[in-house]
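Recap from last week: sequence in, structure out.
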Amino acid sequence: MALLKKDIPNILTVTRIILIPILIATFYMSGKLSNYIAVAIFIFASITDYVDGLLARRFDAYSNFGRMLDPIADKMLVATALMLLVHFDRAPILPALAILCREILISGLREYLAEIKVTVPVGQLAKFKTGIQMFAITLLLLYDREFKVLYYTGAGALWIAALLTLVTGYAYFKEGMKHIDNIGP
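Predicted structure tokens:
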């Protein structure tokens, strides 16, 4: 049983990745039901992100596999949802690009910092940004042409998430740069 407890966070992370093709398929289904299925998948996957971290801390179930794959799974889920929403004209492109570019920048910086054994903790504002981002994506997934308020609320929340993304990304980058020597040619 102890082994199973330690495996649950990684199982949840892998589940998040497995759900991505199903999320993609919902965009190619017709009818309002597909929106509800997409929202259910996205919310469930988002909850698994929270729960896997909670369980890893509670059961001291940290693993190199989880440390590597968890942030990748998160970014894959968000990137997939944002790209599909933009492609199907259900989300504005500029905040989506800001969010994706920040995630790529920070991922590269984290990879470098990990090589030199430096970690930069996630701040409260970044956690708040993630919540706003997930809320925005959920509303945009739910949106259909009859309920314009879902689009405008979701798009507005996505812009706020993008702004917070830039603020938290800059703060993370600034902190990370303190550990990088010999910048420049």
